[in-house]
Amino acid sequence: MNKVKGVISGIEVSGSLSLVSVHCGRIVLKSIIIDTPDTLDYLVQGADVELLFKETEVVIAKPGPLDISLQNRIPATVFSIAKGELLSSLVLKSELGKLESIISTAAVMQLKLEPGTAVQAMVKLNEMMLSPC
Amino acid sequence: MITAELKKKLWSAQGGMELDLQFELGTGESLTLYGDSGAGKTSTLRMLAGLLPPDSGRIVVHGETWYDADKNIDLPPQKRDIGFVFQDYALFPNLTARQNLAFGLRRGEAEDFLEELIEISGLGELQHKKPGQLSGGQQQRVALARALIRKPKLLLLDEPMSALDHQMRNQLQDFLLDAQNRYRFTVILVSHDLGEVIKLSDRVAVLESGLICKEGSPAEVFMQHKISGKFQFSGRILHIQQEEVVWIITLLIATNVVKVVVSENESRELQVGDQVVVASKAFNPILNKV
Question: At A51, phi and psi to the nearest 5?
């Protein structure tokens, strides 16, 4: 599980849903949750939180503009790759710290990923969990 | 409403310990006492039952004082409106299941409630058997029904299901919940089974060396992180297996076996037998109507 620390910088509420923006250094990551400031005590502007997301939900793209719905984008470089027959585990270095991504080995080949390659790590906002810290 | 303030010097294998507890419980509420052995859980139940005298304190149940050190009040166990079920069933071996239940009836009391209890506890077919002819789960069902026959205000359960297999536990838990819904008695349970605690209790008090160190709903007490994911269960690890760059963790959640993929780092912290919280976002699961 990837853990990234940040500070809540925006909360948009609609019904029982909240779209929470979290400032992690210069990067803003967003999470959609079934909670509101009324139901979750740490859901307040300025609160320190951790964003949790699974390695298997981290999408890898090469840098540059993309016509894609994923808005959580973290610039990173590949630090190391452990290749299996079907799946590979990538350790990425970013300004948010080390992140891990598990993608198909075929995709590693297709994107020609190797240590040092610049990438964007992307996560859907419904894959981001929040936890107080 | 039940109010308890209990102080008692206890002796355990680790030496002396000062038990000092205070809690309040609403009618029909369930509280679990959770903690290591020797923390004072069973002693607390015994003090509530009148089987162990506190050094000082007060026990008031629905306005009736059962114990008050200052006023010299100490009702004997038979005057306290309680049911008590232990891990061993403590049934009379020479009496049938029905006779065991009837033994608890007060003289001259109608047997209507006995019939009702036999029905809701599912003992109809078994009522004329003696304990020796019943399985452990069935005997414990008789013990639980017997504890309810006097319609107690307070039911004390000391690990009543720990000797039973999962299916039996489930049946007994369902019977207990059903009975509690019907008769609105208050429950204080001692249990180590996380699944059971979550299923049966409204509140949990964690005891450490005679003191309550943590109290709240099961979710508040057992969730280490208040993770926002709404798809959460507690389970036990059955198996850990590496597949290429991921680890597949097989978990038992209630009676279901499920698998969860984790990374190498996480797998290092996990062992077979560990209790874990499984969390995902409500956005991920799909539902298939059957």
Answer: -100, 130
pLDDT in tens, B147-198: 999 889 999 999 988 878 777 888 889 889 999 998 999 999 999 887 788 8
Overall CATH class of domain A2-132: mainly beta
Residue count of chain B, please give it: 290
Do residue B227 and residue A34 have CB atoms under 8 angstroms apart?
no
Q: What is the ipTM, given to two decimal places?
A: 0.80
Chain B residues whose CB is inside 8 A of the A8 CB are: none
Q: Where are the domains of chain B?
A: 2-222, 231-280
Q: Considering CB atoms only, which of B227, B246, B264 is closest to A129?
A: B227
Architecture of domain B231-280: Beta Barrel (2.40)
Contacts of B225 in chain A (CB under 8 A): 50, 131-132
Taking contacts as CB-CB distances below 8 angstroms, the residues of chain A near B245 are: 82-84, 87-89, 102
pTM above 0.90, yes or no: no
pLDDT tens readout for residues A36-84: 998 888 999 999 999 999 999 999 999 988 899 999 999 999 999 999 9
Judge: A127–B281 Cβ closer than 8 Å, yes or no: yes
Distances (CA, A) of B161 to A6, A38, A59, B21, B60: 44, 38, 47, 25, 28
**Which residue on chain A is closest to B226 by alpha carbon?**
A131
